[in-house]
Amino acid sequence: MAVRYNKLWKLLIDKKMKKKDLQSAAGISSSLITKLGRDEPVTTTVLMKICTALQCDIGDIMEIVKDNTQGKK
Fold first, then answer.
1. CB distance 32 to 20 below 8 Å
2. What sign does the dihedral 71-37-55-25 (CA atoms) show?
3. Fewer beta carbons under 10 A from the terminal one: N or C of the chain?
């Protein structure tokens, strides 16, 4: 399984926000923004900060999808 944050980026566009705005509003570091941009896992604490800043639910910013590379060598 893999995490995708495409919903987060779409929500930022809808709210006319930039990644830097999210970083400031949620009180998170630029390295966390980078991790999100690479669809890397982050802690639930970070996700809660983002949801609080954007006034949304966790399902509004991320989704879990099947990882096709799992089990392949």
1. no
2. positive
3. C
Tokens describing residue 47: 């996700």
Angle between helices 19-26 and 44-54 in degrees, nearest 10: 100
Domains and CATH numbers, the chain: 2-65 (1.10.260.40)
User: How many Cα atoms are found within 13 Å in the side-chain-facing hemisphere of 32?
Assistant: 16
Give the position of tokens 């954007």: 54
- Number of Cα atoms under 13 Å in the Cβ half of residue 10: 10
In this predicted model, what pLDDT tens digit does every residue of 11-50 receive, in sequence order?
999 999 999 999 999 999 999 999 999 999 999 999 999 9
H helix count then E strand count, the chain: 4, 2
